[in-house]
Amino acid sequence: MNAGPVPTPSSPPPDVVRAASIELVVTDLAASRRFYVDVLGLVVTQEDDRCVYLRTFEEFIHHNLVLRQGPVAAAAAFSYRVRAPHDLDRAVAFYRELGCRVERRPDGFTAGVGDSVRVEDPLGFPYEFFHDVAHVERLAWRYDLQPPGPLVRLDHFNQVTPDVPRAVRYMEDLGFRVTEDIQDAAGTTYAAWMRRKPTVHDTAMTGGDGPRLHHVAFATHEKHDVLAICDRLGSLRLSDRIERGPGRHGVSNAFYLYLRDPDGHRVEIYTQDYWTGDPDNPVVTWDVHDNQRRDWWGNPVVPSWYTEASLVLDLDGNPQPVLARADTSEMEVTIGADGFSYTRPGDDADALPTWKQGEYKLGHQL
Amino acid sequence: MNAGPVPTPSSPPPDVVRAASIELVVTDLAASRRFYVDVLGLVVTQEDDRCVYLRTFEEFIHHNLVLRQGPVAAAAAFSYRVRAPHDLDRAVAFYRELGCRVERRPDGFTAGVGDSVRVEDPLGFPYEFFHDVAHVERLAWRYDLQPPGPLVRLDHFNQVTPDVPRAVRYMEDLGFRVTEDIQDAAGTTYAAWMRRKPTVHDTAMTGGDGPRLHHVAFATHEKHDVLAICDRLGSLRLSDRIERGPGRHGVSNAFYLYLRDPDGHRVEIYTQDYWTGDPDNPVVTWDVHDNQRRDWWGNPVVPSWYTEASLVLDLDGNPQPVLARADTSEMEVTIGADGFSYTRPGDDADALPTWKQGEYKLGHQL
Amino acid sequence: MNAGPVPTPSSPPPDVVRAASIELVVTDLAASRRFYVDVLGLVVTQEDDRCVYLRTFEEFIHHNLVLRQGPVAAAAAFSYRVRAPHDLDRAVAFYRELGCRVERRPDGFTAGVGDSVRVEDPLGFPYEFFHDVAHVERLAWRYDLQPPGPLVRLDHFNQVTPDVPRAVRYMEDLGFRVTEDIQDAAGTTYAAWMRRKPTVHDTAMTGGDGPRLHHVAFATHEKHDVLAICDRLGSLRLSDRIERGPGRHGVSNAFYLYLRDPDGHRVEIYTQDYWTGDPDNPVVTWDVHDNQRRDWWGNPVVPSWYTEASLVLDLDGNPQPVLARADTSEMEVTIGADGFSYTRPGDDADALPTWKQGEYKLGHQL
Amino acid sequence: MNAGPVPTPSSPPPDVVRAASIELVVTDLAASRRFYVDVLGLVVTQEDDRCVYLRTFEEFIHHNLVLRQGPVAAAAAFSYRVRAPHDLDRAVAFYRELGCRVERRPDGFTAGVGDSVRVEDPLGFPYEFFHDVAHVERLAWRYDLQPPGPLVRLDHFNQVTPDVPRAVRYMEDLGFRVTEDIQDAAGTTYAAWMRRKPTVHDTAMTGGDGPRLHHVAFATHEKHDVLAICDRLGSLRLSDRIERGPGRHGVSNAFYLYLRDPDGHRVEIYTQDYWTGDPDNPVVTWDVHDNQRRDWWGNPVVPSWYTEASLVLDLDGNPQPVLARADTSEMEVTIGADGFSYTRPGDDADALPTWKQGEYKLGHQL
């Protein structure tokens, strides 16, 4: 499987502006609404018995998160906004040439969005492209409505896929560019960050069993905003929703927090990466053994973060089968029984103090 | 051992103003100086080949940290400032009545400090009391000298001692008051926070093998100051100095970070607890099984934080023998093989998701 | 008037713990409630048609702000908590010896407070002393209830009085200590900051026509909390409630913001001064001509801040007559027609750039 | 003068990526270097007796600020990075068609930059376009080198020009888009913000006597970073460099501070505007009489901010003549003798409290 490389279509790709929205299937809509609205503070643009359409405080399009009641928790659509209506024609031609299943609905797949294209992309992900969308009030100036730690933008997706280089080449054909990646000396690529908008990413390709959604990330303005969300979760006795962090990423240099929603969908709260919009933006490559690559402070990555992710749906709404990663896994080579990580290049393999080795490694050692 | 309770002296205790300074014996003075001065940014008041006298940016007394070169890493003095010169007479009488070894030096034990009393207290700790001290410039307004994340005050000590209730009763005789503690339903006390100045503590008594120094804490003004120290450690490739955090404490409601210095002495960076100065300040008691007691966000406490601590010296400069805790340990009852913790009172014993169970527990389970 | 110095009583003063509460008479209780509760986010402990009892998020006593409906906006009581019940006897004796009018009510003057003493003090202010008070939940850990920019403590009062040295001497007799003041080379004192609790002040004495209340200050934890209040006021189209700031004080080194409530009562939002609890805490004296004394960034003080203040009531509820300051005023000597200020000692009198000279001065010059 | 509209060239404009760098002529290079390097903390990439090339911490191109010693303080070049080398050919054709003076240097005008085009644009500004540029280390991860309040990016320019609509139309031909503007009911436009990169602006057109440089803006990550710069200026007794702020803009929703360098060049420190990169990004139009348009907290704009600006140079290095604005000025219609501003739409013309009316107005009234 994951046979050969995805061929480069002769059709030009659609001009993607940004990662704009995600549709999550949730198994208890009321519970999910409580999490995203009452706890995280997202704004309800529209809702009915089946769906809740939410947006962040600086968003002016109808929504950037759709929660839809369904039987199996999964990601139903990774939606990108394209620059012009004709980019939808391009998307159709681009994916048809790749032999992908393509569906176009002039009235859109969700409320608030017009003419849209959904595809099962070569990696098995349900990608959506749209241009027409209803405008709603941008609540950037409505500080009276904002909770401590307001989420202001959808920043990016993160996808789990077995073969990262294969995924990267396909995404480059789609017009994305790599900003950072994680490799080892043997040339294995463990993850890559790819962007259309001039930040570190609109999506990342993370090596693992896939296709699966690793997480969707929403941005705050400041680091204390991220901490405020942690504090509120503690007060609500929901601290077990915090999976990893808060911390500073090495990759992206951003400040982060990972939460798990009531269905286990992972949500990152993210702030302060850097400008990548120059055509010759330097790519940053991290050594997979560098213990500061995923947390600049060297704090251990919890194993669940490496292994758990959400299913994704095909265009009929059925979960895509998950294919195993063939390459070595980042967890195994860094904190597994035979793995190692260092703080300083040249340090011995076992140079990390016990408090930096992580749960998984310690588990093996005891 | 830890025989009976410490008797209450008939002599009145000295009037302690605050935890004021600590003297640490370090095995490589140059390495320690680099850590505290070049990395953490403390200010050198005075130094020679054997000692470095350091202070925080809002301190006006000569120093609040003494690094002294020596053969074995240890804490040599926990120094409290007393209100008046005659409080030294009181300290002498108070500890003599307790049968403790007491030494008084009219010229002080360290540079910058005058008439001082050092004792081996009933718990085996080297406590010091002083009033006379040289004044130096309070650098509060010198933002031009301050690094990102300036340390402004010494906030508190934390001591490891086998029998917490015994320690608390003695410290109450010394005039301290409990502000918070950790107990279980059976009445075992695992730790207690005690104050003279109107914050959560000047020192805490943590149950464990002792007498040992658990940590000394310095305060910053804001949470981003704590994060700035983490970021700098990452840039200097010293992230392995970060042992635990950053995070929000349940106890004290303060924001924290724990570092380990080149000798393994633990240093907390701490900010934003609350006013406790009213005579009827309510004591907050935490259930040892509450997973938010030590980290409000429920993040696991690394085992080293529970088990490792610094030796303390007697008045001859020899390490005090360490006596084992008789009561159950907090680590065992919370994340040990038979321990449990909960996020919500009433949750099942195994209700914590895997990412919240901590390294130690996972180790046992694998 | 302001005849001679206030004599020192032979009776010992009550042991004041801290500035604890203030009672403000407001002319439109609903409007004031909206301001303090809906806008500033204070917590209602109790209310009826005539009074609203409010507290900050870290307060555990019944209230620290009472809003009382009345015909004339004024301050009715500056309330200090004393250490022990017998301190009320001391307060009675102390003020009786000064010839002041004294009223004691074993059941208290307001809800939630027991045995209390109110006096018309030698400066004409309605001071209150109490010990017994109902405890309520300290909401420090209730981040789920806190708005952006939560007010956590009542920090201090600020009183306008014609003769600052006279006021200081009386307050020293009451057990307060000066931490900072503003003087000129001729020895005139323009303002003094005085403390019981170990911060820069529990109250300040500001030279001007008095007795009047200059402001009451509530504390936040961080500077962004203060900014969040400004942002919210903007969103509510209430930015005209912002009188001065935000900015950094020279005196106290704290970060500040001054608001005006619906009656014009001035409220400061304040954070991050420094420890002053040592018995030999160094007093900081500022030159009245130093343009950074009141704003470390040299931003002009708006004239209303110098000239406007709230009436205070006598024990019958009638406004105290306001006596004129005899000494030169700080506004006149700094930004008045003949005044001057400098950024750097030794600079010419007219060295301030136009944007630093302030409204008042510019007014005269045009 | 400012005769008719600038015609739209038939040549396509260059594809501008972003405002990338500015060259300032300074009259005392050592003094300017102290301000930008020692005080603001910019990084020196290269320097000689005549020029200092500086960059912010997240910049990877050679410099984004050139200080050049010269006889008259002025702005010598507003430099934009273009997407591809052939965009320089486009720039030449575009401006030649407009009849502008154009100069192209294959080796660049400054160190570190290759093939460049400089023009005297139709508004009289010295615009530069370049693509080839030397890469240097992006210091984003070098927290060990960063001072409190690190400047991370050049964010935008702000230009003073007599006829804003004329300038806007020309800039739209150059490929820029308006994101926000300030107008009055009669249709006069007082200022417009225009972007290429997806933030609120790469440059703004501010109505006034021009062509002049109003300011260049550098970005920080958080608001406390801006405050840290103020605090440091206070400590260095350079608070008179602070002209306006800190504050929250209405336009852009960003947090701001305006400084004046040793020559009076205005520098803004700026953080946290919003995403504008969608093709249908909603334009925000502010009423010139809305007192929250320039400061969301309603704080007065100091008159110097409206009236003072830097000369700009022609391609021979001589100052461009300054032409007077014909339309009414924003200062006159808002805080001038006949002007007015409101906090709430519908408020009376004189509804602002005295502390919000500003220096200029007060000056007239006294």
UniProtKB/TrEMBL annotation, chains A, B, C, D:
The keyword Protease does not apply. Keywords: Aromatic hydrocarbons catabolism, Dioxygenase, Iron, Metal-binding, Oxidoreductase. The keyword Oxidoreductase applies. Residues 18-132, 153-272 form the VOC domain. It holds the Pfam family Glyoxalase. Its cofactor is Fe(2+). Gene3D superfamilies: 2,3-Dihydroxybiphenyl 1,2-Dioxygenase, domain 1 (3.10.180.10), homoprotocatechuate 2,3-dioxygenase domains (4.10.1270.10). GO terms for molecular function: dioxygenase activity; ferrous iron binding. PANTHER family: GLYOXALASE FAMILY PROTEIN. Belongs to the extradiol ring-cleavage dioxygenase family. This is 3,4-dihydroxyphenylacetate 2,3-dioxygenase. It comes from Cellulomonas biazotea.
